[in-house]
Specification:
It is a single chain. By secondary structure, this protein is an alpha/beta fold. It has 2 domains: about 280 residues, NAD(P)-binding Rossmann-like Domain (Rossmann fold, 3-Layer(aba) Sandwich); about 210 residues, N-(1-d-carboxylethyl)-l-norvaline Dehydrogenase, domain 2 (Orthogonal Bundle). The protein is about 50% helix and about 10% strand. The strands form 3 sheets. Strands 5-2-1-6-7-8 form a 6-stranded parallel sheet. A hairpin with a 6-residue loop joins strand 3 and strand 4. Helix 5 packs across helix 7, helix 7 crosses helix 8 and helix 11 crosses helix 17. The longest helix is centred in the middle third of the chain and has 25 residues. Bound molecules: D-mannonic acid. The site of D-mannonic acid has 9 residues, from helix 11 and helix 15.
């Protein structure tokens, strides 16, 4: 079978072609982190903006950060890939036009710096995952001892996004290429402000930077915060086969997603951007209420289902939610523990939001794996669960469900198997540290104490909280002594 590329594009049935001819798009956007999420979310908005406005200046050059795998496959397809929106029998499959170039950042550093300094480029977007920011999850400050960060500051070919952006901005300033907007689209609270803060901390490291760069960044570079929402599971071979059959050409980089999509973007934007508001992006003065809601109610519940489901032996989120105990737990977690901590966006119907989130998770067509959501918990849990824990404790209430999620996370990364002894391996940058810290400890209260001593994760305040320590020890003990679903049922009776 021929491969999807510009040379086979015209053979596609018109229903599978983009409303925009990919050959007409010129470079206007650089993206860092070309995973499924970016392709299922931002690139689809950019394509619709091009279609709606007729403006062809926002083609995207995207870079993969950690390995060349994704960018090589996309480059071989001339940036083309299909997006399947799973709505039951009538899934639509269309090729997205926006991605015009794909590169591996570490192999093509010079090109990246050149494109970041191109006057035609007015927008940079990032989806590099939580750990891509090289910060401490608890404090959101730069990890000043990170060896890649230090090498980048010293002038090595940049391997971190911070180094890449700073070198690109230096070149942009020298070239007088005009203001630029850098939009973080990762699931971090205040993502834009955090990125701006990390860049300014990076510039304080011992290293070689153009004098005056910090002032230039202050006046010429815009870092809006954003909340992005769409469930985009990792691609499977089965999906690749199905899509290739429908298209009649082989697509080795297809993306599957759900109908729901949302992008709330802070109105802190530089000039010359595509008309995103025209295609449904909500431009607001303050993203915080949207992002706290999403991170705690949606992502927090996702992580909860992932760890509890994984331990109970469920491979997929939707399957785990079919368990009545997990479904009941999720509702109660959102209603009783998360909701009281939220300042809701004006006009939001919370009960409806919660039902919609749980319905989206239950979509069996997505096949979203518990193991995927469980990955990198140390980078995710602070904003997803620990904020809720801290605020409930401050209000004098013991957040039993949230703390059970922490115990389930601990069990998942230290035990590495479910309750039927089936092994799994959760990938997490702090897993080694946590396992080491726990060493040969055996009693639940020792385990709780050692776990809380991982200050990169808990910070000083929560890490030293006695009530949290007691509750965590109880949760660890209950998971050690009964099957997960029985523990959940027991919680309901308390
Ligand atoms: C998920 C998110 O994998 C995960 O950690 O919780 O990717 C989630 O699907 C998205 O944030 C939904 O917008």
């Amino acid at each position: 079978m021929a491969t999807l590329s510009l040379s086979t594009y015209d053979t596609l049935a018109s229903e599978h072609r983009s409303p925009v001819d990919p050959r007409e798009l010129t470079l206007g956007v650089v993206h860092l982190g070309v995973g499924g999420f970016n392709r299922g979310h931002q690139l689809s908005y950019l394509e619709r903006a091009a279609a709606a406005s007729g403006d062809r200046h926002f083609g995207v050059s995207a870079y993969s950060e950690r390995s060349a795998d994704a960018s090589d496959v996309l480059a071989a397809q001339d940036g083309l890939y299909s997006l399947r929106v799973a709505t039951g029998e009538h899934s639509s499959i269309t090729v997205i036009a926006s991605l015009r170039e794909a590169h591996f950042a570490q192999r093509e550093n010079d090109l990246l710096i050149e494109q970041l300094s191109d006057p035609a480029v007015r927008l940079v977007t990032l989806t590099v995952t939580e750990k891509g920011y090289h910060h401490d999850p608890a404090t959101r400050r730069l990890r000043r001892d990170d060896k890649d960060v230090l090498a980048d500051a010293g002038g090595a070919p940049p391997a971190t996004v911070l180094g890449q952006l700073v070198r690109g901005l230096e070149a942009r300033r020298r070239r007088d290429a005009g203001p630029i907007t850098i939009a973080s689209c990762d699931n971090l609270p205040s993502n834009g402000a955090v990125l701006a803060g990390l860049i300014s901390e990076f510039l304080e490291l011992p290293g070689r930077f153009d004098a005056g760069l910090a002032d230039y960044i202050d006046t010429q570079v815009f870092f809006p915060c954003s909340m992005v929402d769409r469930i985009v599971p990792a691609a499977t071979d089965q999906h690749r086969r199905l899509v290739s059959e429908v298209l009649g050409v082989e697509d080795r980089a297809p993306v599957l997603t759900e109908p729901f999509t949302q992008w709330v973007l802070e109105r802190r934007l530089g000039p010359g951007l595509p008309d995103l508001a025209g295609v449904g992006v909500e431009l607001v003065g303050d993203v915080a209420p949207y992002e706290t809601l999403k991170l705690r109610a949606l992502n927090g519940t996702h992580s909860a289902i992932a760890y509890l489901g994984l331990l109970a032996g469920y491979e997929e989120i939707a399957a785990a939610l079919q368990s009545e105990a997990i479904a009941r737990f999720s509702r109660a977690f959102i209603d009783e523990e998360v909701e009281p901590t939220l300042a809701l966006p004006v006009g939001l119907d919370f009960a409806r939001y919660r039902d919609e989130v749980l319905e989206r998770f239950a979509n069996p067509l997505l096949g979203y794996r518990t193991l995927q959501v469980a990955g990198d918990g140390s980078q995710k849990l602070p904003q997803r669960v620990l904020g809720t824990v801290a605020e409930r404790l401050a209000a004098g209430v013991l957040p039993r469900r949230s703390v059970l999620v922490l115990a389930a996370y601990l069990q998942a990364i230290t035990e590495g198997h479910d309750e039927n002894n089936r092994p799994f391996s959760v990938s997490d940058p702090l897993a080694g540290t946590i396992r080491e810290r726990l060493g040969g400890t055996s009693t639940p209260s020792e385990r709780a104490e050692r776990f809380l001593s991982v200050r990169e994760l808990f910070g000083d305040e929560l890490g030293g909280d006695e009530r949290l320590r007691g509750l965590l020890a109880e949760s660890i003990a209950s998971l050690q002594s009964a099957p997960v679903l029985a523990v959940l049922a027991q919680l309901d009776r308390q």
